[in-house]
Design a protein that fits this description.
The protein is α+β, with helices and mostly antiparallel strands. The chain contains five helices and nine strands; from the N terminus they run βαββαβββαββααβ.
């Protein structure tokens, strides 16, 4: 067997997330069907580096697949797949890797970005959360630094998931100003829990509004009680932006 990494991006608006689901169309399903059709191999399966929730986007998702025959020209296959796939999914590159390299378990870090706009925007509205209330981003950054000090993020996880533990090692978390009307929260960790980034962003927005203090935020983390966290930020503002191996 020959293993290939597929780097792709997608607009997640129309999908129930990356992971194949019995009750909705997923990105994984669409890409798998494209591969099976183009390569005329109905047995192909793909494994993603992680899962994104309904409505969440990816600037960079990585998946691997095992093929019985080696691809003669990766660029030709890339063009054929992009011609077959819908406009909201694009393959960026396809590379041959060793058989023991795993898209999910081989990843050492993932980076997400969350976009916020502070006024109405015709072009950004579909990919950012609009917050009309003035936010104290300096305080939000001061509080975000606490995330690096902790590893148990039960307070920012969905209940009843299949994960064995809620331990994540966050190496970076910061708000960055794009322009006068847009901010991006970037966060990097070895792994993320379901809904984790959106819950963190929603809680940091409450910090920016002056409703949660730095001590409150610390208490929320240490409580391991997700009911104390802020309302999760809308999915449309969240992007999986980079995966490192």
């Amino acid at each position: 067997m020959f293993r290939y990494f597929i780097y792709l991006s997608y607009n997640g608006t129309a999908y129930c997330g990356w992971q194949a689901q019995p009750n909705g169309l997923s990105v994984q399903e669409v890409v798998t069907n494209a591969l099976r059709t183009v390569l005329r191999s109905p047995e192909i399966t793909i494994v993603g580096a992680g899962r994104t929730d309904t409505g969440v986007h990816a600037q960079e998702m990585v998946a691997h697949c095992d093929l019985s025959n080696k691809i003669e020209n990766e660029n030709i296959l890339l063009k054929k797949l992009n011609s077959f796939l819908p406009q909201d999914i694009a393959i960026q590159k396809i590379i041959f890797v060793d058989n023991d390299v795993h898209a999910r378990f081989g990843a050492i870090s993932r980076t997400y970005q969350y976009h916020i706009i502070t006024k109405k925007s015709v072009f950004k509205n579909d990919f950012a959360a609009r917050i009309d209330i003035a936010l104290d981003f300096e305080e939000m950054n001061r509080v975000a630094m606490l995330l690096i000090q902790y590893q148990d993020f039960t307070s920012f996880s969905k209940l009843h998931t299949n994960t064995k533990n809620n331990i994540c090692i966050i190496s970076y978390a910061r708000w960055q100003k794009v322009d006068d009307d847009e901010w991006i929260f970037e966060i990097t960790a070895n792994r993320f829990l379901r809904n984790m980034v959106r819950a963190i962003v929603g809680t940091l927005i409450e910090v920016g509004k002056g409703k949660i203090s730095i001590d409150d935020f610390r208490m929320i983390i240490e409580s391991r009680n997700c009911s104390l966290a802020g309302t999760s930020a809308p999915a449309k503002g969240l992007f999986l932006s980079k995966i490192e191996y």
